[in-house]
């Protein structure tokens, strides 16, 4: 029955940010992998994401950083609106104390990022309409069964299949839980230029976190996180009803300057989305299997987190470079001839685990706490938010981004 299996050295489940970057990292090292994507084509939903210093180091490691820099603007700081008046009353430079020389923060279209990754991969690296049904074992190999009945026999399975990961479930990782908040996001084009400074324009308080930032001279990305249970008008059909989403956000920013309101007002309905925010319980990352023999997870399959420190996508890029390097050593460096390939793979993935477990724990925990402080109601929280944001927020963002995943040199 061996002829019924298609042999592939490395199978990556999911053609999202983590999956494509991992495939590219392996490709740069001369290793071929197969990316399985359940959709019929590349999924480019999500509009945009903020990439910090650690993400740009990872993108440079796989060789696409400079091309993306040409399409994005470097952020300089925060413009903070008063929760009472809605006016931008304070401004904070990102690196006001000079502690993070060389920091980098830019907002990038998700579509641009994913298409750049795809264009760097060899033909046939991605197989669309390939949904994973189950994973079985055949000795030390893994058998990946697809919904269409085909079977892949592989030495390594990497789950980059998001929050509802099939691979994470196979490893026994707990299901990500809701944080009780949702996020509305949008992308808008200003044909004659937006005129906004390269700053994070933000407003917190009253149970809502709203902000926007330019991607380039003409494109602006915005977000609004909120707690549905605290919104009397909230209805279950909101994720499918951009009109209601838009009306809600406008009602929460009606005291902001006209140019800030125009960001939401001019956004086309097909460029607005809403999603429930979920995260993996931090102790689940610490005490559960994120690697088992020759199977592992990366990206949102490993560490789904709230977007409050902008590290979800950044940490996925970190995962990919570290994972690529660890597997590269396993497949390409045969320093101990007594070890067989599977032993080297297991050791490589154990190394990946040590590198990513505590980093993931910390990012998930900090993101959750930051979101709780930024969005909570009450006089005490309002006071803490004012003191904390002006004194610590910029440093907190930069400190979490001050991480170097290293390069791909073995």
UniProtKB/TrEMBL annotation:
InterPro entries: FAD-bd, FAD/NAD-bd_sf, MOase. Residues 7-331 form the FAD-binding domain. Keywords: Monooxygenase, Oxidoreductase. One of its GO terms (molecular function) is monooxygenase activity. Belongs to the 3-hydroxybenzoate 6-hydroxylase family. This is FAD-binding domain-containing protein.
């Amino acid at each position: 029955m061996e002829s019924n299996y298609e042999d592939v050295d490395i199978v990556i489940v999911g053609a999202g940010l983590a999956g494509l970057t991992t495939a590219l990292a392996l490709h740069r090292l001369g290793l071929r992998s197969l990316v399985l994507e359940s959709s019929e084509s590349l999924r480019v939903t999500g509009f945009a994401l903020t990439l910090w210093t650690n993400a740009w180091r990872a993108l440079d490691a796989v060789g696409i950083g400079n091309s993306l820099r040409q399409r994005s603007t470097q952020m300089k700081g925060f413009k903070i609106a008063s929760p009472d008046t809605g006016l931008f009353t304070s401004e904070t430079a990102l690196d006001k104390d000079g502690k993070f020389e060389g920091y980098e923060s830019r907002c990038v279209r998700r579509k641009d990022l994913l298409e750049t990754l795809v264009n760097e991969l060899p033909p046939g690296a991605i197989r669309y309409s390939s949904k994973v049904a189950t994973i079985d074992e055949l000795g030390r190999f893994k058998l990946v069964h697809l919904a269409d009945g085909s079977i892949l026999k592989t030495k390594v399975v990497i789950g980059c299949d998001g929050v509802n990961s099939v691979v994470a479930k196979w490893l026994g990782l707990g299901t990500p839980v809701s944080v009780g908040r949702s996020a509305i996001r949008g992308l808008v084009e200003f044909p004659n230029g937006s005129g906004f400074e390269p700053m994070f324009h933000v407003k917190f308080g009253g149970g809502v976190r709203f902000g926007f930032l330019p991607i380039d001279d003409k494109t602006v990305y915005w977000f609004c996180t909120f707690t549905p249970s605290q919104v009397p008008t909230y209805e279950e059909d909101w994720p499918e009803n951009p009109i209601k989403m838009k009306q809600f956000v406008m009602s929460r920013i009606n005291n902001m300057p006209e140019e800030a309101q125009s960001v939401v007002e001019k956004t086309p309905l097909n460029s607005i989305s809403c999603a429930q925010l979920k995260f993996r319980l931090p102790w689940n990352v610490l005490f559960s299997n994120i690697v088992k023999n020759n199977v592992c997870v990366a990206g949102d399959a490993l560490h789904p987190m709230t977007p409050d420190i902008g590290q979800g996508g950044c940490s996925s890029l970190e995962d990919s470079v570290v994972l690529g390097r660890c597997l590269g050593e396993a497949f390409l460096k045969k320093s101990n001839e007594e070890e067989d390939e599977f032993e080297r793979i297991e050791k490589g993935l154990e190394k990946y685990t040590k590198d990513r477990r505590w980093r993931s724990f910390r990012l998930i925990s900090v993101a959750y706490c930051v979101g709780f402080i930024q969005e909570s109601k009450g006089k005490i929280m309002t006071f803490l938010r004012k003191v904390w944001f002006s004194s610590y927020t910029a440093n907190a963002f930069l400190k979490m981004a001050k991480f170097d995943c290293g390069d791909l040199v073995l």
